[in-house]
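Possible regression after last week's pipeline update?

I re-ran a chain I had predicted before the update to compare outputs. Posting the input and the new output here so someone can diff against the archived version. Not blocking, just want to make sure nothing changed silently.
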Amino acid sequence: MKFIETGLRPELLKGIEALGFEELTPVQEKVIPVILETEKDIIALAQTGTGKTAAFGLPVIEDTDIEEQEVQTLVLAPTRELCMQITKDLQGFAKYYPRLRVVPVYGGASADNQIRELRRGAHIVVATPGRMLDLLRRRAVDISGVKNVVLDEADEMLNMGFRDELEGILRETPADRRTLLFSATMQKEVARMADRYMELPEKITIGKQNAGAENIRHTWFEISARHRYEALKRLADINHDMYGIVFCRTRRETRDVAEKLIGDGYNADALHGDLSQSQRDQVMRRFRNRSLQMLVATDVAARGIDVDDITHIINYNLPDDPEVYTHRSGRTGRAGKSGVSIAMITPREKNRIREIEKIIGKKFTKGTIPSGEEICRKQLFRLIDRMEKAEVDEKQIEPFMEEVFRKLEWMSKEEIIRHFVSLEFNRVLEYYKDAPDLNIPSDTTKKSRREEDQLFRTGGRKKGKTVYTRFFISLGKKDKIEPRNIIGLVNDLTGNRDINIGHIDIHDSFAFFEAGREHATQILTSFHEASYRGRVVRVDEASERKNTSKKRSKKKKVRAVA
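New output (post-update):
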């Protein structure tokens, strides 16, 4: 279906044409007519990069009365970056609506400047929930005349803990408003919000619910935990055109991986919550203009990234929540392009791949970490290809050629080629000269698997006479917590994989775990302000024991988390 068939105003069609759009995407084809021809609330389930902004943006612009100087549409989005992108898109659509005012408001920028912009008049406000609620409390914005409320990436906003803010904002809007909810997944929280704030919504699903995009190839690599970084480098070396995001669990891991990549000569940088807004903006500018090959990020920091050309998503660690994988992978394969989503897993995580396959409705392909010889071969022939295709400017180099020929006349053609290859390629050849195989053999026996699991639990060392400290953690079966999750939290939050983990005892709403006593302070400090699937995690020291003795000392009243 073409845009000209939608019945949109000529001014909008002219703006769309100026942007180079002709055909509607599936989400646009289904959503635009419903908004234009009915007054229904809508729940649209579609992945990122499917054209959702135009799906709601074009009809709400069409529905705007330019003569009315009040906010008529409120768009809520999870992050500053997404707010800025939506605003830019809406302004592009409305290029031939010169009097239409679209004003973005978000945290990390001057509220006073945003208030001044709002007072100049706004027909459409694009906002993050926190900043919007703040402006409402200051009475700096009036949304009592809003006709349309758009919740973009509703699942992300709820995952980020914005439920109270969203409810506070929705209470300030008219009861007869129309609500347009867009989400990649239909989580329980999203369904509850829809039940509470929407009236008989029409549900539109593009593809399977919660499914991954069709043009994304999902691959998993089975490696030992200690080889994770080396495997990442090999994947980058074999995919020389990679332009991707590497997802880590924690800020500390994000920093560590990015620093290692930079130290090893890769174009990489980190994006995490410890960065100031100006630092974040600088990193994102470099990523958007492709000065960075790899952006290493946490899930929270990466929310709202809107870049169409990402080729690879690498899960350095799988997320605790399988549905988060859908969001991660959805950042590649956008705008009709293909992409690759890679999961780096240890043998004990295999069952999690099956769990994700059920959610995304697609099968993973098992990949093989390339050998040093494969990487050398590929990079060598890439170098030869570049040399063959190099443009020769005869006029520019002619004055130097006589001297060059004289300088090299003692060498044969074969010797010149060898020297050329060595000059450009010695570093790679030296690095991968004795590179080990990082793949885990497929015929691993049950005994060696059990040994690997045991080494994983003990941080790579046998228990011996380790003296353990027992910890209480405020997560249990109701949080779908398993021993591997607790081990992962300890490893990731401390940044230390050499901590001996002993017995783990999980109850309905809490659990106990043992760890080497020498790491007790590090564990308590690292869990300060920790969270798991959006829940604040509290960790306290319980009692000590030596090895697995049943003797218990009195509980120490050490509070770890406020």
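Follow-up from reviewer: compared with the archived run. Residues 494 and 526 are 5 Å apart (CA to CA). Marking as no regression found.
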